Structures are given as structure tokens and as C-alpha cells.
Amino acid sequence: MKSPASIKKAAEWALPYWTRGQAGRETPQDLFRVLYFGWLAAFTLKVLGSAWDVSWHFKWLRDDLAPPHLLNSAGTALALALTIIHGYTGYGVDKAALRLIQWGTGIFLVAVPLDLINHRVNGLDITSWSPSHIMLYAGTFFMIMGVVRGWFMGAPPGRERTVVLAVFLAFFLENVHFPEQHQEYGILSIGAWDNHAVYAEPILLQFAADQMGRPVDRTMMTEFALPVPDFLYPVYAVVVGLAVLVVARLMIGRFGAATLVAAAYVGFRTLVWPLLTFTGFPPSALPFFLVVAGLLVDVAFLVRMPAVRAVVGSIGVTAVAYGALVAQSAIMGPVYGALQGQKGLLGAPPLVTASAVWAGLGLMVVWLAAEWIAGRRDLEPVDAAPVIPATAT
């Protein structure tokens, strides 16, 4: 706990900055770092809470004041404070970053009471794919997008800029992949049932069975643990998960960027896994295939052919777009192969092989969109990013 003297010193440092200003004002580097390290702390709290949350809901009956919700709420409170600071002072963000952060925070705060009402009306509603839950992810999506832009546009060149950008993008990947954890926990819960072991407490199973109007049996367990179509997991993972990795490679601008972001997220899930299981919470399948996907994205960017792209550009299709099309076509097979291999060796949600067609089409669209936007915005590698100069206080 900080002493009164250290709190007073921090207040004396911060108060001169508490002035009204427009987004985009020049920001001293020490203040800029404090703001964005504050965002790192906020997202860390939210990620720790969310990592615990799914496992909690596969064991206990829902409670609004459950410890994972309180931990996540602490992160949300810090995020709200930072949003207010950015909005009032204008420090650390341009107009686009500020609007994304404000809209994201607003959507999230609206979604919280809607989610509480949803649970009051519909009971358990364990699925991660419910409308109110999707609003929570959407709010966090825009919030992190604004933070990524603010850091990308304002941090000075160097290793810290690259590493922190990668961490923010790993938070981004965690947020978009979060609903997939329902299937990752669900498939192992069904396996435990088949082996005459049950992770969930009897009160949770009985509540779910009563809500479905059937006895506690395997059919009820399947509806409880895997309530969405089997094709959703691989298609969503490929289209949305790989889209984040493509954006990471474009923004960081270096080979290994996509692999680093994927490995950071999967590494976090791997570290948390024993902490949860050794304390009696249900285990989940881990998305190791995302690391393979990240490596494939990096390789795809490495091998694109400028000469071929130039020819294609002459008929009205951009070079980058053609490169993205070739890259997307080349990595679909290995990604689905990695999914199938993980399913056989380590466990993974059901894999509908035929869904690869739709996953491939979706990935092609989002990859081309990412490349087009990057070309329009003229994204540069991190060492060429603009610097927000310091000003005297």
C-alpha cells in the first residue's frame, strides 16, 4: 500500500495535467506512458477475470457478485477512469482513438445491465454467444482498438513500442476468441461425463436441467456444454482469430509478429490452466493451433511475390490484394490440419471439415479488407511511427 507521502507526490505530479483540451494535443512522454501502462493494468485485470469467469460458470451457479465478475469490474472501473481522463484532457489520443475508446466503453457499460436483465429473464443463459454477451465483447473490441491506435500513433520508436503494441494486440486476440472458450470448456466437460466424472456442482446441473425441462442426462449435458453448431468454432477461429494476427503483422511490420501475438495469448491460457484446475475448477482445451496459424501468417507475408503483384496491379487489382489472396489460399489447409491434429492429440471442440470452405472465404474477405485499409492508411513498421513530443509542465 502506498504511503500518504507517495500519494501526495503522485497527485502533485498529475494535477498540472488536469486541464481541458482537445484530442490530439501534444502529450509529454511521461504522461503518455502512465496513461497506456494504466491501460495495460486495466486489460490485465479484465483478462484475469474473464479467464476465471468461464471456468467458474462451468462449475457454480451464476452469481452477479462472483469473484471473476468483481475482478473484471475492477479492470472496467480503471478503463472508465482512463476514458474520462482522455476525453477531458485530450492527452494521449487523437480524435479517432478517443471516439473508439469512448464508444467501446459506452457499449460495454450499456451491455452490463442488459446482461443482468437477460439473466433475470432467461435464467442461466450460459452460452457465451448470447446477444448481451456479444455486446460486452463488442464494447471491449472498440475499446482495445482505440487503445491500439492511440499507442501506435503516439509511442516513440523502439523496443518498448513494439512489445507493448504486441501485448495490446494479444489482449485484442483474447477478447475476440473469448466466446470460443465455451466450446473449449464444453468438450472436456462432456468427456468427463462420459468417463463418469462431473465438473459442475449438482445445483448447477439441476438448474440447467430444470430450465431445459429434462432430466440430468447426456443430452442435457450436451445442450449445456455445446449449445451452438459445431461448424461455428473452426470458422470463427479462422476468420476472426486470423484476422487479428494479420492486423498484428501489418501494424508491427516484422516477421514473427503474428506468431508472437498468438503465442502470448496461448501462453497466458497455458499458465492459467493449472492454476484453475489445481484449485478444483474445470479444465479447457487450449487453442494451440493459433500459434501454428500465427506462424503461417508470418510466412505468408514473407513469401508474397512483388513481381506477380505488379502484373496483377496492371489489370486493376492491387498487388497487396493478390498477395493476400495467395497467402489465404496457402494457409487454410495447414490451419485446419493443425486443428484436426490438436483434436486427436490434446482435445479440441468438434471440427466440421466441410466448414473449411466458408472459413476460407471469410478469411479471404477480412484479409483483403485489412490489407486495403492498411494501404489506405499507409501503415508503417513501428520504427517509422510518429512521436508525440514532450512539453514543459
Give a verbal description of the structure.
- The chain is mostly helical.
- The protein folds into 2 domains: 20-224, no CATH class; 229-384, no CATH class.
- It has 15 helices and no strands.
- It has helices at residues 4-14, 29-57, 67-89, 95-122, 131-154, 159-177, 181-194, 202-212, 218-225, 232-252, 257-277, 289-303, 306-313, 319-345, 356-377.
- Helix 2 (29-57) runs parallel beside helix 6 and helix 10 packs across helix 12.
- Keywords: Membrane, Transmembrane, Transmembrane helix.
- The chain crosses the membrane at residues 31-49, 69-89, 96-114, 134-155, 162-178, 231-248, 255-273, 285-303, 310-331, 351-370.
- It comes from Nonomuraea rosea.
- This is DUF2029 domain-containing protein.
